[in-house]
Amino acid sequence: MAEQEPTRRERYRRxxxxxxxxxxxxxxxxxxxxTVSLNxxxxxxxxxxxxLYRYFACRDELLADLAVDVHLTLADxxxxxxxxxxxxxxxxxxxxxxxxxxxxxxxxxYHLAYETTYGSAREHAADRIATAAQRCMDVFLGVVAxxxxxxxALPPALDKQLRGRQGNQHRTPAAVRxxxxxxxxxxxxxxxxxxxxxxxxxxxxxxxxxxTEVEAMLDALRPRYGATA
Length: 229
What we know:
GO terms for molecular function: DNA-binding transcription factor activity; transcription cis-regulatory region binding. The protein is mainly alpha-helical.
């Protein structure tokens, strides 16, 4: 059965929602989630504030919707890096650096997705945020899984937890999921410290530290997976 064309009212609503989100994303990227204002968005669109609330019931709902878009945009960047026609080890490196490059170019968006409850699927749009965030994690797991599976056994309790969450598209083994989660958490930690300017006081070059960490993780991967650069 052919899908029905949207009505004029539906098209107008979609267009208005897109304009609201574009204005909100501009505010977010300029100065952070704290500055996103429904009243300011309404004024910029020549709308009344009550009219805008017909599209988003509250500011938190709008921020959660932005968090979905942020996760999806990041996933696009990671998938592009993972799709390069290079060796498995080089794809691991490419994804890791694409992750940092994206975060540094969009620090406020990264903060919304990974350092607020709006991006953690705990409040509004929980299902959509979880699905979008999983796309990002699937890329990390995918490039790791391409190189093989670790021989090291996991503790039974952790193995059970990881095997209970086999929703990603790669159907990766629990040991690969464990490696991917540890790898992602270490990279995220360095990026968060860099964005918060906490590394500046150490006198260490953040880019060099990140590159060294990626190489260290890759070195740990090679003996287990037999990956080659």
